[in-house]
Amino acid sequence: MSSKNYVHPTGEAIDLGKIVVVDTTGAGDFRTIADATEYLDTFKTGRASIIGLVGGQTHIVSSEINLRGITVIQVGPGIPIIQAATGAKLHVSGAQFNGIQFDVPIGFGGTYLMDRTLGKIVNFYNCDFSPATGKYISGSSAAPGTLNIQFFYQLCGQSLQQGGILDPGSISAYASYTITIVGTSGTGSLQFNIHNVTSDLEARYDVTPYSLSGGLITGLPEGELTVAPGESIQARLDSLVAIGGGSCKILPGIHITDTNIKILGDNIFVSGDGDVSVIRTVADIDWLGTTGDNDGVIMVGDPTGDIIVNGVQVQEIKLEQLTTGPHGYAIHGGKDNKFHQCTAEAQSDMTFASTAKHWSGFWLTDSDSDALWRPIIRYCSIQQSGTGNMYAEGIHIDGDSVVFYGNGNLVYDSIAMMNTINTIDETAIFEAGGLSGTVYANKILNCPQDDDGTAIVIAILGCKGIQVIDNNINDSPYDSSGASDPFVIWFEGSIRCLAVGNEINGKLHGGANNFGTGVTLNNGLFGFSQLTDQNMVVQNSFANCNYGITLSTLTTDKPKQNTINPNDFDPIGGTVTTPITDGGTENLYVGVNRYGAAPPGLLFGFFGDTYTDATGPTVYKQVAYPSGSTWVII
Q1: Which pLDDT belongs to residue 148?
Q2: Does the residue 107 lie in any domain?
């Protein structure tokens, strides 16, 4: 017998005890594993149950052997091989293996080598697996427990294309089990039945969740799961949820889905390679919620509000919606969830259905139990493919419950920045029930397409402190024929909001039509009790609009203490028929606004040569008109 020092593979020091060495040449304590385990079985306490297999040797097993709770390690150079012969079965519940290769050859009479009947964790460190076609390393005649495979070697990639780790016939009756993959020290892959666990060229390890009857294969966060076309994206995401987060790479190609893809755990990072990583819907996808208002093809959080997640980022993915169904991308509550450089492309009519549901490229709402905090949509694209194929809305952010689809728990500090929105049926960017959000530097073209008298390009409703800054809104798609729609930027029931530095031009790229109204401050259309007060419309540029800025009310409550100063009307010679229209305000400040070469009598449209407030008690005014090359204030 030999006494050797041993440190557990996890780094934990083990009390010195007998390590029973198995050497097929007779130079060790025993020649066979069966003899070693029979010896160890005579000791119940006081001795570490460790078997050392001499490296470079093949240790043949031809009978049932009890390795429960025993640690089997490599001794000396070379990898020792445990090879199954007819009659072999290793009972391994609670066992640990370090530096061992397991070989189940074609001539093995059984199906699998190891049985985990008692359901305890089995650990493999730096091990390798070599099952032949139709053979498996592990099965179970009762409910299996957790299987940990850590740092396997490269032979797996050569051999496991034939057999697998788990025998499906032996475990399919059981409700759940868990398999954890930590990584690989080689370039190989693991296979669990028909599921192939591979590593890509950048040594990021792919873990395929396996679910014959609800089981789960998981990987550690420092690894990156990858999914190729034809494999399950949902299965990878469920694996990351089970281990508390991690990353998933959507490999280039077309990934087909006929159901929602749900991210239901915190701290998950999903990325593709841009427009070459395509997720494509090929069948109508059912709505999961009661009304379906919060569903998405790619969905962060649960639409019923039962699962709220935080810290999720989805980036560089293209979604192609060939069929009608839910929104493109969706967030339902939670904190710090983001979409970055994603594309939503409508390849079917995604406007309004007979059920009154409508679809947005990006749909973000609070949950029924919590607010939506700090959601970000940046550098994304919402577009159409084919005539008549478009979304009803581009980006919908909603924490309001009175009129629209939120739950009344509000949205805090939302950011929609530097997105491109092209050809939308109704509203390019919609926000309701938002506090301190930013709509910044978005490029909006050919919106809205629907000439129904209520179309709005950017709608800010029931909000406080929203900043609409430096957006480029161009090319009206239809002739408004002198009517007030389409409205470009509409504030209602919103206070202390800001529209600054926006460029609004109905014909910038050669379009034939004007916008209806550039900026509207209104009360009463949508029924908000909060009034449209203390907002500022400053340093915006208006061209090719029938109306520049309109203040109005449909109730006895008037917009109050709003500011218009300084804005440019017709800075490049385009037409703004009526720059500023006041339909009823109080304490309005109109500063130095500039209007092309028109005489000052047209500066305020309906009110003649001087500006008067039709209903409010106080108006402050400064009017500028051109005098040669200078501007004169009167």
Answers
A1: 60
A2: yes
Full domain range(s) for residue 203 = 1-241
Give the chain's mean pLDDT: 74
Determine what percent of the chain is predicted with pLDDT higher than 70.
Answer: 68
Cα→Cα distances 624→338, 526, 570, 598, 615, Å: 44, 35, 13, 10, 24
When pLDDT is cut at 50, 70 and 90, the band that residue 337 belongs to is very high
> In the structure encoding, which two tokens stand for residue 152, read together?
């396997």
100 within some domain: yes
Q: In angstroms, what CA-CA distances link 433 with 258, 402, 412, 528, 556?
A: 32, 9, 9, 10, 23
Q: Which residue bears the tokens 């800025």?
A: 549
Q: Is residue 183 in some structural domain? A: yes
**How big is the chain, counted in residues?**
634
In degrees, rounded to 5, the angle at the alpha carbon of residue 511 between the alpha carbons of residues 510 and 515 is 130
| pLDDT band per the 50, 70, 90 thresholds, residue 626 | very low
Angle at 78 between CA 75 and CA 79, to 5 degrees: 80
Q: Which whole-number Å values give the CA distances from 491 to 27, 327, 416, 535, 558, in the listed order?
A: 87, 25, 17, 9, 13
Residue 306, both tokens = 């039962």
Q: Which neighbouring-strand residues pair with 327?
A: 296
Tens digit of each residue's pLDDT (9 = 90 or more) over 371-393:
999 999 999 999 988 777 888 88
Contact 541, 576 (CB under 8 A): no
Over the stretch 432-487, which tens digit does the pLDDT of each residue have?
999 999 999 999 988 887 766 668 899 999 999 999 999 999 877 765 554 446 88
Instruction: List, as own/partner pairs, every contact residues 229-235 make where C-beta atoms lie below 8 angstroms and the sequence separation is at least 24, other chains included.
Output: 229/253, 229/254, 229/255, 229/256, 230/255, 230/256, 232/208, 233/257, 233/261, 233/279, 234/259, 234/261, 234/262, 235/208, 235/209, 235/210, 235/211
Q: Give me the DSSP letters along 288-311.
A: -SSS-TT-EEEEES-TTSS----S
Is the Cβ–Cβ distance between 557 and 579 less than 8 Å? no
Q: How far is the C-alpha of 537 from the C-alpha of 489, rounded, in Å?
A: 10
Q: Determine, yes or no, domain membership for 12.
A: yes
| Separation of alpha carbons 526 and 559, rounded Å | 15
Mean pLDDT of 72-76: 89
Please determine, for residue 220, whether its predicted confidence score (pLDDT) is greater than 50: no
Q: How far is CA 630 from CA 137, 310, 600, 626, 634, in A?
A: 87, 55, 14, 6, 13
Q: Output the CA–CA distances (angstroms, integers) from residue 503 to 341, 448, 497, 534, 539, in the order listed.
A: 23, 16, 17, 22, 9
CA geometry: angle 39, 40, 44, nearest 5 deg: 125
Q: What is the per-residue pLDDT for 596?
A: 64
Q: Into how many domains does the chain fold?
A: 1
* DSSP reduced 3-state for 234: helix
DSSP notation for 493-523: S-BS-EEES-EEETTTTS-SB-EEEEEEEEE
Q: What pTM did the predictor assign?
A: 0.67
